[in-house]
C-alpha cells in the first residue's frame, strides 16, 4: 500500500451526524459530505459508515456522498426488531425517498451488496442509475441441492449450519473474541494493528446479539435471480486474497450486460477490507467507472 493511502492516524474519519426516521420510527444516522451527483455508500454486516472514510474523502470533491449506518450498526438506533435484509432495504428506501435522491450511484460492500440486491427486487424504479458491488457472493451459504461446481461458481463459502454456529458463538460470552477472529480473516497481515483495533471497535458498536440475529438471514439468502435481471451500468470488484473467492466478481459481472470487473491482486492488497487497505486503487477504479457511465 502506498504511503498516500495512509494509516488510521493519517485518515480523517467521517462520523454520521445527520438523522432520519424510518417508517417504523427508528432513527438512522448518516454522513452527508460534498456536493454534486449523489453517491450512496452501504456498508457490510456489523460494519459502519465511518469505514468508508477514505472513499468519502475522495468522492466528496465531486459528489454528494451519503454513507449510512444501517439499523443496529454504528451510531444508528439499535431496536430489538428488523434484523433481516428486507428491513434494511426498506430503511435504505426511506433514506432515498426522504433525501429525494435521483440519478443515484449506489456502492455496496459485502452485505451492503445484498441490501442493494434486495432493494432492486422490492423497489424497482428509476432513482438508481449506477451500481458498484464490492466483494460479495450471491449466497454465502451452500445450498445442499447445488453441485460442488455450482457452489464454487456462486462463491458460497460455508455450509448452512455454519451460519447458525457463528451466530451462537456471537451470542456467547466469547462473542467479542469470535468477532475479532472473523474480522482478522478480512484483512491482510500488513494492516497496521492500530487500524485493525479501530475496525474491531467500529464493529462492536453493534451488540453481538443483534449481529447474530442479522447474520443468519443474511448468510442464507440467495440473490442470483436478482443479479440476472440487473440492466444498469455496473462495476463488480473482488480481491485475490479476500475470504470471498476471487472468481465471484467475474461470475457476477458476466451475468450483468456490459458490467465492468476488477479483481485486486495480492500485491494490491485485495482483501475483504480492500477499500481501507488500498483506497487509491479502489477509488480510481470507481471514479473511472463513473466517468465512463456518465
TrEMBL record:
Gene3D superfamilies assigned: alpha/beta hydrolase
A Pfam family hit: Abhydrolase_1
Gene Ontology molecular function, alphabetical: hydrolase activity
Name recorded for this polypeptide: Alpha/beta-hydrolase
Lineage of the organism: Eukaryota, Fungi, Dikarya, Ascomycota, Pezizomycotina
Keywords, alphabetical: Hydrolase
Coiled coil, from the record: none
PANTHER family associated with the record: AB HYDROLASE SUPERFAMILY PROTEIN YCLE (PTHR43798:SF31), MONOACYLGLYCEROL LIPASE (PTHR43798)
GO cellular component: membrane
AB hydrolase-1 domain segment(s): 37-264
Keyword Membrane: no
Keyword Magnesium: no
Amino acid at each position: 500500500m502506498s504511503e498516500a493511502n495512509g494509516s488510521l492516524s493519517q485518515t480523517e474519519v467521517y462520523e454520521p451526524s445527520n438523522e432520519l426516521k424510518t417508517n417504523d420510527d427508528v432513527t438512522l444516522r448518516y454522513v452527508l459530505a460534498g456536493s454534486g451527483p449523489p453517491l450512496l455508500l452501504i456498508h457490510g454486516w456489523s460494519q459502519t459508515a465511518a469505514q468508508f472514510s477514505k472513499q468519502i474523502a475522495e468522492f466528496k470533491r465531486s459528489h454528494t456522498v451519503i454513507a449510512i449506518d444501517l439499523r443496529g450498526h454504528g451510531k444508528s438506533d439499535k431496536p430489538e426488531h428488523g434484523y433481516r435484509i428486507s428491513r434494511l432495504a426498506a430503511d435504505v428506501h426511506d433514506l432515498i425517498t426522504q433525501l429525494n435522491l435521483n440519478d443515484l450511484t449506489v456502492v455496496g460492500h459485502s452485505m451492503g451488496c445484498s441490501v442493494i440486491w434486495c432493494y432492486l427486487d422490492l423497489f424497482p424504479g428509476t432513482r438508481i442509475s449506477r451500481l458498484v458491488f464490492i466483494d460479495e457472493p450471491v449466497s454465502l451459504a451452500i445450498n445442499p441441492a447445488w453441485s460442488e461446481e455450482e457452489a464454487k461458481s456462486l462463491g458460497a463459502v460455508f455450509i448452512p449450519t455454519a451460519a447458525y454456529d457463528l451466530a451462537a458463538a456471537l451470542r456467547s460470552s466469547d462473542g467479542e473474541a469470535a468477532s475479532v477472529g472473523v474480522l482478522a480473516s478480512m484483512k491482510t497481515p500488513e494492516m497496521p494493528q492500530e487500524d485493525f483495533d479501530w475496525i474491531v471497535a467500529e464493529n462492536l458498536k453493534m451488540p453481538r446479539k443483534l449481529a447474530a440475529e442479522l447474520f443468519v438471514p443474511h448468510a442464507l439468502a440467495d440473490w442470483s435471480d436478482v443479479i440476472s435481471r440487473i440492466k444498469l451500468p455496473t462495476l463488480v470488484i473482488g480481491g485475490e486474497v479476500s475470504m470471498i473467492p476471487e472468481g465471484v466478481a467475474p461470475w457476477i459481472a458476466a451475468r450483468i450486460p456490459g458490467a465492468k470487473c476488477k479483481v485486486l491482486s495480492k500485491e494490491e492488497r485485495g482483501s475483504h477490507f480492500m477499500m481501507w487497505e488500498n483506497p487509491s486503487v479502489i477509488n480510481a477504479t470507481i471514479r473511472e467507472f463513473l466517468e465512463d457511465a456518465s
